[in-house]
Amino acid sequence: MGESAADDAYAAISAAAASLKVDLPAEELAELAVREDLGDEELTAVRKVFEHLAERRHEATIEMLLRLSRLPQKSPKTFDGFDFSRIQGRDAAALRKLPSLSNLHARKSIAFIGPGGIGKTHLAQAYGRECCMQGYKTYYLKASELRDKLRRAAESGAPSRAIGTLVKPSCLIVDEVGRCTFDRECTDMFFDVVDRRYEKEGPNTLILTSNTPVNNWDQFFTGDDALLCTLDRIFDKASVFVMRGPSYRGAGCDTFSVEAVPSVTKLRQ
Prior knowledge:
alpha/beta; five-stranded parallel β-sheet
């Protein structure tokens, strides 16, 4: 093994060890190789073991992130499973760029607005799943579930804990905004979540879906004008996709036309 190849092996082993939370600098590994007279075969074997362990850890981490995300695990929604060929129009290219997770890294919100069955929830869940696959914490819930979660927290006298759990994930998905109304206390708590996520460091995004245009969302939250102005913060940095077109629902439904005819009575001879 040449000097360059050996350096690459040391760096690869060191990187794999780091992913396992083991501090093993390449220089220290090189010194160990000299001291123990490790040759090409030994270094290759060590590299394969560390890379195998690192891959196992990575897979276990993704499995845990998916489980904790509350994203549906049965028939999961993915970008590969979305028919982007159906999406036309001037800004169709922007929708096709979603798998790059640029909004997550740019710390921008995403909103999918449009009629039922057009793919809003699919895209939101697919985004969250891709975040998990790349090692980012995701949390998914419907707006009614969010309201109930905040209400229980308010009633138990522990709102800060509930708010903290909603601020922590890199990707927070609130599906079906407009299916319920938030009272004043829940509205106050939700906007606290929005404010804290707005100031959150590192990759993060808030994803919302709704059948209702954004300019009508104030009817779903209870509060004075100053409080409702927090809605603007959601869209201060955001990508809003206004979607139109026929519903995807029923695409796999086969319809058969049949007819019942009168029964024939057999005559006695």
